[in-house]
TrEMBL record:
Kinase is among the record's keywords: no
One Pfam short name: MarR
Ranges of residues in domain HTH marR-type: 7-139
Keyword Calcium in record: no
Keyword annotations of the record: DNA-binding, Transcription, Transcription regulation
SUPFAM superfamilies to which the protein is assigned, alphabetical: Winged helix' DNA-binding domain (SSF46785)
Domain of life: Bacteria
Full protein name: MarR family winged helix-turn-helix transcriptional regulator
Length: 144
């Protein structure tokens, strides 16, 4: 049996495209002193303010320690803040600040430009097919 080229594997394409997308977008986020990951965290907090670091880590598909480092950096930049969790004195809830919301307002159009660039030349039908396939792959792997 012939050995498959690693570039024919799902893992290669997912990793390669994710890294490429992140690299292109990071050129924009750097202008604001942020990484693409920090942008993603701000975006999650904008939509779900008042969540724990553990919940945020789960949403970001990252471990709590990595998420904690990102949170510390964003807090030092005054883009997010922590408030005590009223239901657990040992825990904190995370919120985006007005400064964080303003950075997002400026970055979202840049993210949309990268998104449009990525989909350039791809038909609406192809986009929908891609999404269907990705949902199936997600569901197949999530069941494991």
């Amino acid at each position: 049996m012939a050995q498959r080229d690693h570039k024919d594997t799902l893992g290669y394409w997912l990793h390669h495209m994710s890294a490429l997308h992140r690299r292109v977008f990071t050129a924009d986020t750097k202008k604001f002193g942020l990484t693409a990951e920090q942008y993603g965290l701000l975006f999650q907090l904008r939509d779900r303010g008042g969540i724990s670091q553990k919940q945020l880590a789960e949403l970001m598909h990252k471990d709590q320690a990595t998420t904690g480092k990102i949170v510390e950096k964003l807090e030092a930049k005054r883009l997010i803040h922590r408030l005590p969790d009223p239901s657990d004195r040992r825990a904190f809830l995370l919120y985006i600040t007005e400064e964080g919301k303003e950075v997002l307002r400026q970055l979202i159009p840049l993210a949309e430009t990268v998104e449009a660039q990525a989909w350039e030349g791809v038909s609406t039908g192809e986009v929908e097919l891609f999404k269907q396939i990705m949902r199936k792959i997600h569901d197949n792997l999530y069941r494991k």
